Structure formats: C-alpha cells, structure tokens
C-alpha cells in the first residue's frame, strides 16, 4: 500500500507544511464571531450545534510553525495569540456546554486555565501558558486585558470581529473604551471626595501590567472612561475599589418566550 508524503510525515511524527499562506485576516474566525456573538455575548448552544468552522480555524492556527510566526511583525503576532486564546476558550466552553461557568471545568482540584487545550507550534499548551507564559511577558502590552475573554460575564466584551495586525492598535483602543464604559464593571463616582474609582478586579489581578503611579494610572484610565468621568479623574485625587466579578457564562440569553 502506497502512502502519500504528508501521511508518511504524520505517521513518523514529523512536521507537515501548509501549501497556502496563513490567512492574516482570520476570516474563518470572523465568520464564527459574526454568526454567534451579539454585543459581546455568545450563543453557545448554536455554536455547539455547528462547531466545524471554529474547530477548523483552531486547526489552521495549530498548523502555523514557530519560524513562520517569528517572521511576522509584533501586531500580527499579538493578534494571532489573542484570537487563539479567545477561540480556544470558546471551544473549551462548547466542549462542556451546557456548563454555567468556566470555573466548573477542570474538576474540584483542577483549573480550566491549566488544561492543555490549545495547539501551538506543534505542542498542546494551556490558556495560562498562552497568557502568562507568552503574551504578558513577551509583549508587555496592558491592553491585552481588554481583549482576552475568559467566557465570564465580567470579562471584557468578546469582540464581534477578529483582531488583525494592521488594525490592532485601533481595535485595542476601542476595546478599552467598550470595557471601561460598562458601568457594572468600571465606574467613577464623581460626587465623592476624593473621587471613588470602582474598577474591574482585572486591574487588581494584573496591577503590575498597568501604570502603578496614581497620576499615570489616572491618565491611562481617562483615555477609555466616558468623557465626564475621565475629565474628573484626570489630575485629581482618587481612591480605588474593585467591583465584584461575575463568573457566570457570557451566554447570549434566549429571547423572551423561547426556552
């Protein structure tokens, strides 16, 4: 029996090579998001019923070799890794749906973020490795925390389009404005003295990734807060509190009258 060259490589455990260039526009993932994401919430039931596009997209990302990746510019690399994180999270939820929270995945003593569910450069890695082992230390970009979505209601809203290298800065700026304008997650009480700034716990968990000096943090936040809140915060004194984090699934709720 004759074996094709590609099948021989697979059987021998050697890397295979794609015949077409990687789609830097992440078009397939764009179709997944357009079909299943509404205002940052996800129709997981529909995605579970039709997972082929998502699975194929993750397979395409998993086929990208490290040398090819290293040849891209910084924005293209970051867009790739952010999309990979978010798409792998969607797949993790779909594989366990109907789960009520990502924290229910992994058992009593495990963590969903430590499951090796992400294919990257020929290896299975975890979401934690992707975020804390690559994205945060390599790129040192605080705005990734506006883009990474761990499938919880208190996460930043899942963007309805892929991140792409040639628009990454614009997209991250927009994500920051979307996230900081959600008053259930981030808000400024301009009536208190000093001002009370209530922030998502994300700013606490990753405080070393954001400006730590109060004036610089205020300037950073004011770029994304609604104008009246940003103007009040800029140049003033303030105290920080953190809002509660809702870990329930960022699920698109069924319309009234439907189950």
Distance between the termini: 53 Å
- What overall form do the CA principal axes indicate? globular
List low-confidence stretches: 1-11, 13-17
Task: Report the structural category.
Answer: mainly alpha
| Cα-based radius of gyration, to the nearest Å | 20 Å
Largest sheet report: 3 strands, mixed
Average pLDDT taken over every residue: 91
* Proportion of residues in helical segments: 40-55%
Order of helices and strands, N to C? Answer: HHEEHHHHEEHHEEHHHE
Write down how many β-strands occur, each being a DSSP E stretch of 2 or more residues: 7
Percent of sequence in beta strands: 5-15%
- Number of helical segments with 4 or more residues: 11
User: In order across it, which strands form the biggest sheet?
Assistant: 5-6-7
How would you describe this protein?
The chain is mainly α. It has a domain of 145 residues. Helices cover 42% and strands 9% of the residues. It has eleven helices and seven strands. A three-stranded mixed β-sheet has the order 5-6-7. A hairpin with a 2-residue loop joins strand 3 and strand 4. Helix 2 runs antiparallel to helix 4, helix 4 crosses helix 6 and helix 6 runs antiparallel to helix 7. The N and C termini lie far apart (53 Å). The N terminus is likely disordered.
């Amino acid at each position: 029996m004759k074996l094709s060259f590609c099948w021989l490589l697979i059987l021998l455990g050697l890397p295979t090579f794609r015949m077409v260039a990687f789609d830097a526009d992440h078009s397939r993932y764009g179709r997944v998001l357009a079909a299943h994401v509404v205002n940052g919430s996800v129709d997981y039931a529909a995605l579970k019923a039709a997972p082929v596009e998502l699975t194929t997209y993750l397979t395409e990302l998993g086929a990208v070799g490290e040398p090819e990746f290293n040849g891209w510019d910084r924005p293209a690399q970051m867009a790739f890794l952010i999309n990979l994180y978010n798409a792998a999270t969607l797949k993790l939820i779909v594989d366990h749906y109907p789960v009520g929270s990502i924290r229910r995945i992994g058992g009593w003593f495990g963590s969903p973020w430590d499951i090796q569910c992400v294919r990257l450069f020929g290896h299975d890695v975890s979401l934690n490795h992707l975020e804390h082992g690559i994205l945060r230390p390599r790129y040192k970009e605080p705005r990734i925390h506006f883009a990474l979505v761990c499938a919880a209601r208190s996460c930043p809203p899942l963007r309805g389009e892929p991140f792409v290298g040639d628009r990454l800065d614009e997209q991250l700026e927009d994500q920051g404005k979307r996230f900081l304008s959600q008053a259930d997650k981030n808000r400024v009480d301009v009536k208190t003295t000093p001002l009370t700034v209530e922030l998502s716990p994300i700013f606490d968990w990753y405080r070393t990734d954001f400006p730590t000096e109060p004036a610089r943090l205020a300037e950073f936040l004011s770029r994304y807060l609604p104008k009246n809140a940003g103007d009040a915060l800029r140049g003033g004194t303030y105290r920080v509190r953190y809002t509660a984090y809702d870990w329930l699934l960022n699920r698109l709720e069924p319309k009234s009258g439907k189950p």
